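In this section we walk through a basic example: taking a raw amino acid sequence and producing a predicted 3D structure, encoded as discrete structure tokens. The instruction is simple. Fold the sequence below.
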Amino acid sequence: MSDPVALRVRFVTADLPQLSEDEVAAQEDEASSFDHEDVVGVAVDEDGTYRLESSSFFVPLAIGDLVRAERAADGELQVVDVVAPCDAVLTIFAPDANASPEAITGLMRIWEATGAGHSERGGPFVATVWPDMPMDAVAAQLNADQAAGRGEWILAAEPHERRREAQDEIAFELG
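The resulting token sequence is shown next.
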């Protein structure tokens, strides 16, 4: 097994309206940190296929998904294809902003005890993969947590929703 590496996931960005050069430069500076996210992957072959070791918090890519990456002009590895999603539901949940770190960790442990494979925190969100659980069971758990005031269920993506053809928010061409 290879060492974990950073893989850049570029986002599709909206075209900027007609602005002056100064306005465009100011917006590009502001947006530069929002045009991509780094996830972690481990090479599984010599052809650039990686198994994700972290989930994305902005696009539907989950721990366990297989992606292909190539070196961009700046030398960074960039995701250029989704080879195969893992057989798990990915969810993003925004815990109550007033919840303590211990309460959020406790919620993640409850999910793991009820079937979640792995949960990870990123900013105000928790990304969780739910292997071997049907979507209705995942939805029941997260709906109950939301109804109890523990936070807000933001996203659920089943494997078919993480295939290449469903990924309209990822810029797969090298940048």
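Looking at the output, two observations stand out. Helices lie at 21-31, 101-113, 135-147. Residues 27-32 have pLDDT under 50 and may be disordered. In the next section we compare this with other chains.
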